[in-house]
Amino acid sequence: MKYLFIFLALLAVPFLAVSGQVNLGDRCKLQTVNAEKGRELLTKNDVYLQRLTSFERAARLRLKRPVSAAEFKSYIRHSVKDWTPAEEKIILAALARCSSKLKNYYHLLPENIYVIRTSGQEECNTTGYTRGKAIILSDTIFKQSRQEVEFLLMHELFHIITRHNPGIREPLYALIGFKKCIEPSLPAALEKRRITNPDALYNDYAIKVLRNKCHYWVVPRLYISHTFVSPATQGRLFDYINMVFVVVSKGDTAKPGQISCEPYLMGMGEVSGFFEQVGRNTFYVIHPEEILADNFALMIVGHVENKKIVNRNLISKISAVMSAWKPAGN
């Protein structure tokens, strides 16, 4: 019943948008697309699909056998759906409500952003994610409150912005202590079970932490727990994803740029100095990209359940970097 009232309230909100489209400034058109266009965009052989291992594809489909790239693409095609008019109104109204607060960042947006509707089953039943210039939304977004919908859309929009302006990542990531490095591998047994995040494809930024009075540069990495046995395992795949820190260099004078030691692992509970750098506005800390995306969403939308602005100074610094950034070619 709660969601029925939210649904009706969202439909009643007026917004300035043509059918299927919201204009963000003079340059950017954000538009919902039909299933045919969605399938075309999501089956392109981009970096995300190229980075997926057979194990990752199988885990997403909850299968024990190897899954080829072709079979996975076929599954994606079947997951894409057409928008209903009611669903489309909810999303476009949420975007229109956020539009005025995005004005300082319009210059960072691409000319076109596409919003694709799927079941979510192709990506671990996540509520939303991005590929290229597309935001992909699943069934579960329509179970969220109005503010949660806005927050998710702004979180995903941040990923579009950094993908369109890759140079902005370095100064933004530096705000929370992350410096560019070579992407480290997990130990062999875990590398086979790694998971690729479509919103943050590379793991090539390290942060300095302290353990037993010694400094280490570490990179957060994700892998799927050995307790995940598809397809009989209960719960979501996300419930079986673990984060560890891969050490890339150690010592008080160590630099993050080069891997100076054999990679080994540390847990969050073994180190200190992490949250002092990334802040406590969010605990979604699996990657600097995700930390900043949540902070950006907080900046635009304000607090939502389980997320609130504790470190306002960080929000101000993010806004300053993004407002002043000059896109390539300008």
Write structural notes for this entry.
This protein has 330 residues and is an alpha+beta fold. The protein has 2 domains: 2-166, no CATH class; 169-324, no CATH class. The chain is built from 12 helices and 11 strands. A hairpin with a 3-residue loop joins strand 1 and strand 2. Helix 2 runs antiparallel to helix 5, helix 6 (85-99) packs across helix 7 (146-164) and helix 7 (146-164) crosses helix 11. Mean pLDDT is 90; it is low at 1-18.
- The number of E-state strands comes to 11
Number of domains: 2
Poorly predicted spans: 1-18
Average of pLDDT = 90
What's the helical proportion of residues? 25-40%
What is the 3D form? globular
Report the major sheet.
6 strands, mixed
- Helix/strand structural class: alpha+beta
- Succession of helices and strands: HEEHHHHEHEEEHHEHEEEEHHH
Specify Rg, calculated over alpha carbons.
20 Å
Quickly count the helices.
12
Distance between the termini: 50 Å
Strand content: 15-25%
Concise synopsis of the structure shown:
This protein is of the alpha+beta class and 330 residues long. Helices cover 35% and strands 18% of the residues.
Any descriptors?
330 residues; alpha+beta; 2 domains; 6-stranded mixed β-sheet; 11 strands; 35% helix; globular
Q: In terms of topology, how is this protein built?
A:
Elements: H1 2-11, E1 21-24, E2 28-32, H2 35-42, H3 47-51, H4 54-61, H5 69-79, E3 80-81, H6 85-99, E4 112-118, E5 128-131, E6 134-137, H7 146-164, H8 169-174, E7 178-180, H9 188-191, E8 205-211, E9 214-224, E10 241-250, E11 265-266, H10 275-278, H11 288-301, H12 312-324
Parallel strand pairs: 2-4, 4-6
Antiparallel strand pairs: 1-2, 3-4, 5-6, 7-8, 8-9, 9-10, 10-11
